[in-house]
Amino acid sequence: MSEFDEDAVSGGAPAPAGAGHPPMQRSAPPAQRAVPLVAFHRRELDQILRLYGRMVASGEWRDYAIDHMKEKAVFSVFRRTSEMPLFRIEKDPKNARRQGAYSVIGAGGAILKRGSELAQVLKVFEKKRHLRLVL
């Protein structure tokens, strides 16, 4: 009897894959070490994305990329998708005790601000309001 004949006998329902055969057992893959990646936490991303939204609304930024690596996490900001990032906001935990885990790096590679609190580091993007004395 072919599988088509079995379908006719069973009422037209196709036979389940592997019917009549014992299930195949797969060997487990060799144990792999999970490489821990540095990532931004939800609150950190919230702060960064709030800033990003303001800058997009003002027309200064257009695109972003997030990279999680073994040693650091990077949020890159672009004016155009095809160019080098204007700024990189980096989280590097190995620098946490020395200079601070967070840094803002400009397009030329210069560190614009570094610190242990993300909110303070992101203040480098705030527009300075110039107060004038009006007489």
UniProtKB/TrEMBL annotation:
Domain of life: Bacteria
Pfam families xrefs: DUF2794 (PF10984)
Record region (Disordered): 1-32
Composition bias type Low complexity, residue spans: 11-23
InterPro entries: DUF2794 (IPR021252)
Protein name: DUF2794 domain-containing protein
Species annotation: Stappia sediminis
